Amino acid sequence: MRGLRKTYGGRDVVDGLDLQATAGAVTAVLGPNGAGKTTTVECCEGLRSPDGGTVRVLGLDPVADAAALRPRVGVMLQDGGLPTGVRAMEMLRHVSRMYAAPRDVDELAERLGLHAFARTAVRRLSGGQRQRLALAAAVVGRPEVVFLDEPSAGMDPQSRHAVWDLVRELRADGVAVVLTTHLMDEAEDLADVVHVVDHGRVIASGDVPHLLSDGASGSAPRVRFAARPGLPVGALAAHLARDLPDAGWSAVEAEPGEYVLAGPVAPATLEALTGWLAAQDTLVTRLTVGRRTLEDVFLDLTGRHLR
Amino acid sequence: MTSPFPAPAPARRRIAAQASFETRAILRNGEQLLVTIVVPVLLLVGLVRTSVVDLDTGGVDRVDFVTPGILALACVTTSFTSQSIATAFDRRNGVLRLLATTPLGRGGLLAGKILGVLAVQVVQVAVIGAVALGLGWQPVLAGVLPALGLGLLGTAAFTALALLLAGTLRAEGVLAVANLVLVLLVVGGGLIVPPAELPGPLAHVAAFLPSGALGEGLRGALLGTGVPALSVVVLLGWTAAFGAGASKLFRWH
Predict the structure, then answer these.
(1) Where are the transmembrane segments (chain B) (predicted)?
(2) Are A86 and B21 within 8 A, CB to CB?
């Protein structure tokens, strides 16, 4: 996909977006709500026509070559798209009839635990049950490419793991899986490549370790602590540099009272830090040492304000 | 890749599956069954057995006069009321979009829906016809074939109107409009009460409505007085107008 653009009412929802997904890999499109994720995958599914740019799925145009692509592409919509009046398994069997050689419906139902509510009307299913049914419908035709829009939204942990296992199995079978999500653990656990999208553009791309590393400090652990707001962070960095002169210390107050310390963190670092805080007559209320998570990367890239 | 190359089922099988799916969805839904089967049968029995509604039958038996109108009503309930509501909610729930991404596609979905409507109409005609015959209905047999043709034309016009509404309004709006329009057509649209017997300006307008044209056409066919050419022309005109509107304005999202 190159330079995808889509405008609604004069507002660019997707603005020059590039991304690529490969067979046998899980590609995650990660972004906050309203970032343009759904619009992007709907352009790949042939449900929307792009206003600019080029989209190719299996080398074909999703709109012009829709008939050739439909049997080869599986889709799970964000809002499910399941008819509400029919029973769960009836729905799955119906979708399977659209394919010449669908997967075994009962085996698939077993995998995703659908038998427990096989005869329940779709409108009475819980959010997680609907999601599992929609996933089953997306893969029942043995697609080569699968688009999953927020696949584990509203799911309990058991369902989520069942879904993740199935996604991994699809990947092992050589299927190209594209999923949108705003769940960090989903992207971190599942994705081979993550594209972080915001305001209709890809703002970062790469595999998870690449995204987690940030320049000089690599994926070195960071120290985060909470204490009274307004500590002189410059003095703290200088203090650490004096005791541990190896270089590259940064101390910032990310939010009032929330501090992040980055540098060559070593056992002595904590001693130096707590000593400095004691000299400031300041009590630490929380202190953690850990690697940057995808959530940190995401928040750094997309900002912390609510939208 | 362990799976074989994914291929679609043949188009005929896909459309047949969709048609049977749609038919079952309508026949299993209580409200749909009420409006498509129960209401027409109750109206038939009520109008034939009581004289609550004053009808000038022009000398023919009341059951012979009323039954074609009830069949016209049945045609409208399935192709218009039931179909517009079902499609509107399917559209809101994303069902149309999801099925459009399967090998069924948009064309197959439409074909399945139309065949589903026709299948339900077969059930309607069987039930209403049986009740009417029980009440002493004696249709003119030579008119059965023209009546079927006219029914198909009416189905085309009202299905197109259903899709026009379902593809442009919110689902709740469609629910309200579809039921309101049905009531208005029954009372003053010339379906059951012939346009000529309607009060005031309606007498002149109703014959040009698709409902009046369908009612008059079926009465003409089944009473043996012949299908008025006006009915056919009016229905063709509405089919073209609603069809053009639906294909231009229908939104899948």
Answers:
(1) 33-53, 65-89, 110-137, 143-166, 173-193, 229-250
(2) yes
Percent of chain B with pLDDT over 70: 98
Question: B78-93 burial, b if ≥16 CB within 10 A, otherwise e?
Answer: bbbbbbbbbbbbbbbb
Tell me the average pLDDT of chain B. Answer: 92
pLDDT, tens only, A212-233: 765 434 556 788 899 999 999 8
Helical packing angle, B11-28 and B83-92, nearest 10°:
110
Amino acid at B136: G
Cβ–Cβ pairs < 8 A, chains A and B: 101
Contacts of B18 in chain A (CB under 8 A): 94
Please give the full DSSP string across A128-160, using - where no structure is assigned: HHHHHHHHHHHHTT--SEEEEESTTTT--HHHH
Most confident of A157-166, A262-271, B125-134, B185-194: B125-134
pLDDT digits (tens, 9 = 90+) for B201-235: 888 899 999 999 999 999 999 999 989 999 999 99
**pLDDT, position A48:** 87
Residue A104 CB contacts under 8 Å (≥ 6 apart), including other chains: none
Structural domain of A152: 2-211
Longest alpha-carbon distance in chain A: 75
A181/A286 same-domain check: no
Show me where the domains of chain B are located.
11-249
Number of domains in chain A: 2
Does one domain contain both A161 and A284? no
Residue A6 lies in a domain: yes
The ipTM value here is 0.84
**Chain B CB contacts of A46 below 8 Å:** 100-101
Q: Is residue A206 assigned to a domain?
A: yes
User: Comparing C-alpha atoms, which of B251, B81, B47 is closest to residue B161?
Assistant: B81
The pLDDT of residue A148 is above 60 = yes
**C-alpha to C-alpha distance for B245 and A243, rounded to whole angstroms:** 78
Q: In angstroms, what separates the C-alpha of B6 from chain A's closest C-alpha?
A: 6
pLDDT score, position A215: 46
Both A63 and A198 in one domain: the answer is yes
Tokens standing for residue A252: 């910032």
Nearest to A17 by CA among A46, A33, A39, A49: A39
Taking an 8 Å cut-off on Cβ atoms, the answer to whether B2 and A173 are in contact is: yes
**Distances from the Cα of A163 to the Cα of A29, A128, B53, angstroms:** 17, 10, 61
Bigger pLDDT: B235 vs B31: B235
Residue A231 and residue A147 share a domain: no
Taking an 8 Å cut-off on Cβ atoms, the answer to whether B103 and A71 are in contact is: yes
Question: In angstroms, what separates the C-alpha of A86 from chain B's closest C-alpha?
Answer: 7
Report the CATH number that the domain containing residue A172 is assigned in CATH.
3.40.50.300
Provide Rg for chain A, Cα atoms: 24
**pLDDT above 90 as % of chain B:** 77
